[in-house]
């Protein structure tokens, strides 16, 4: 009789972790789906400083101009003539998207103006230029 009692006590002490694992996986899926991913332009940019700085969040289109005046979109170097077409494709994926232009401090300002004009021609009016705060 002592054996039966001991066997039944050990089965009552077991912890069922299956519901816990279900909750962990559901939380993992939730965080993956709701997270935003950081986009990289594909080039190392030394941003210019600015007196005024306004944080811009959730930019879906990122265009970079490096110190050698090369234009980068989604880690690909592109010619100036195809910026509009590529931005139109990115806008089709996210119609409410905004654009951020990262320009190296040593790049020609003409390329900044040309890239902004190409983005405006693609139908995006909300464009920001990425800068560092003045220290």
In short:
The protein has 135 residues and is α/β, with parallel strands linked by helices. It has helices at residues 2-13, 18-34, 83-93, 109-121; strands at residues 49-50, 61-65, 71-73, 76-78, 99-103, 127-130, 132-133.
Task: Explain this structure.
By secondary structure, the protein is of the alpha/beta class. The protein has 2 domains: 2-34; 49-133, Nucleotidyltransferase, domain 5 (2-Layer Sandwich). 39% of the residues lie in helices and 18% in strands. It contains 4 helices and 7 strands; from the N terminus they run ααββββαβαββ. It has helices at 2-13, 18-34, 83-93, 109-121, and strands at 49-50, 61-65, 71-73, 76-78, 99-103, 127-130, 132-133. It is elongated and about 75 Å long. The N and C termini lie far apart (81 Å). The relative contact order is 0.17.
Question: How are the strands of the largest sheet arranged?
Answer: 4-3-2-5-6
Low-confidence stretches at least 5 residues in length (pLDDT < 50)? none
Contiguous helical run count:
4
Q: State the CATH architecture of the largest domain.
A: 2-Layer Sandwich
Overall structural class, as computed from helix and strand content, comes to: alpha/beta
Q: Return Rg in Å.
A: 26 Å
CATH topology of the largest domain: Nucleotidyltransferase, domain 5
What is the class of the largest domain in the CATH system? Alpha Beta
β-strand number: 7
End-to-end CA span: 81 Å
Tally the structural domains: 2
Reading the helices and strands in chain order gives HHEEEEHEHEE
- The overall pLDDT average reads 80
Main sheet overview: 5 strands, mixed
Beta content comes to 15-25%
**Broad shape:** elongated
* DSSP helix fraction: 25-40%
């Amino acid at each position: 009789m002592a054996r039966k009692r001991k066997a039944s006590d050990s089965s009552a002490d077991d912890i069922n972790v299956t519901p816990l694992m279900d909750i962990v996986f559901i939380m993992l899926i939730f965080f993956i789906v709701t997270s935003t991913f950081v986009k990289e332009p594909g080039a190392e940019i030394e941003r210019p400083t600015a007196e005024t700085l306004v944080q811009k969040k959730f930019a879906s289109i990122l265009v970079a101009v490096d110190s050698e005046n090369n234009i980068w979109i989604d880690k690909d170097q592109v010619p100036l003539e195809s910026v509009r077409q590529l931005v139109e494709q990115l806008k089709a994926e996210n119609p409410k998207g905004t654009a951020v232009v990262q320009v190296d401090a040593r790049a020609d300002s003409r390329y900044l103006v040309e890239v902004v004009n190409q983005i405006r021609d693609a139908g995006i009016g909300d464009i920001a230029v990425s800068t560092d705060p003045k220290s």
